[in-house]
Design brief:
3-stranded antiparallel sheet, globular, 13 strands, alpha+beta, 8-stranded mixed sheet, 6 helices, M1 Pyruvate Kinase, Domain 3, single chain
Length: about 230
């Protein structure tokens, strides 16, 4: 695996596409505030337990924090999106990710996988759940549904050992996570937990799973055994 790009962003006002704003009060500005627009960084970048130096989040209730310190996205998804949408403006950073990676995607990465990048050590915590801000940013009203259908969600990582990372570096898999629980399987297990209880329980057994998902599963009765 290889780290192709490193991206950071700061909160800014971005336009809401007209169709997505049709039902809103016309007197209100058709903009949203987000740090989803990321810019590539060259050279070494400091990585702490809260993420990359120079990167920020807007809504700390649902973004950021130690369990979501980094968002990774597969570089291989972008050619597919460009072909399917007939657009050439969808590329690295387009899904708001910090790390654009080569040689990994949601079907190969497991919850709990540990990666050594530069002098840092990170661990996969959960799939990314798409939101309306991503849909607005990419000007696709159907993007949440498309991400769920295709599984091209991206995934979050926690930082176990802070360090320095740089675009172009090798990503070394130094520890495998929960047996068989890929990012794609985890997303489906959470999405269909009501009618696929065994899958939800299997997901809850993953000790590396992000705390908010573990708490949610526990409250709904999907507890780890033992």
């Amino acid at each position: 695996m290889r780290l192709i790009f490193v991206q950071v962003g700061r909160p800014a006002l971005l336009p809401i596409p007209a169709r997505a704003a049709e039902d809103e009060d016309p007197s209100e500005p058709r903009v949203f505030r987000s740090a989803i627009a990321k810019q590539a960084v060259t050279g070494p970048v400091e990585l702490s337990t809260l993420g990359l130096a120079g990167d920020q989040v807007e809504d700390t209730r649902v973004h950021g924090g130690p369990e979501q310190a980094l968002l990774a996205y597969a570089a291989s998804h972008y050619p597919r999106w460009r072909a399917e949408w007939g657009r050439d403006d969808v590329g690295a950073g387009g899904f708001g990710e910090n790390l654009t990676v080569e040689g990994a995607d949601e079907t190969t990465v497991r919850i709990g996988d540990r990666w050594a990048i530069g002098t840092a050590l990170v661990e996969v915590t959960k799939p990314r759940s798409p939101c309306n801000r991503l849909a607005w940013y990419q000007r696709r009203e159907d993007l949440i549904q498309l991400v769920r259908a295709t599984g091209r969600s991206g995934w979050y990582l926690r930082v176990l050992t802070p360090g320095v990372i740089e675009a172009g570096e090798e990503i070394r898999l130094v520890g495998r996570g929960c047996e068989g629980m890929t990012v794609r399987r985890a997303a489906l297990a959470m999405q269909h937990r009501t009618d696929r209880r065994d899958e939800a329980i299997a997901l809850a057994r993953c000790s590396a799973l992000a705390q908010d998902w573990r708490i949610r599963l526990a409250k709904e009765g999907y507890r780890r055994e033992g």
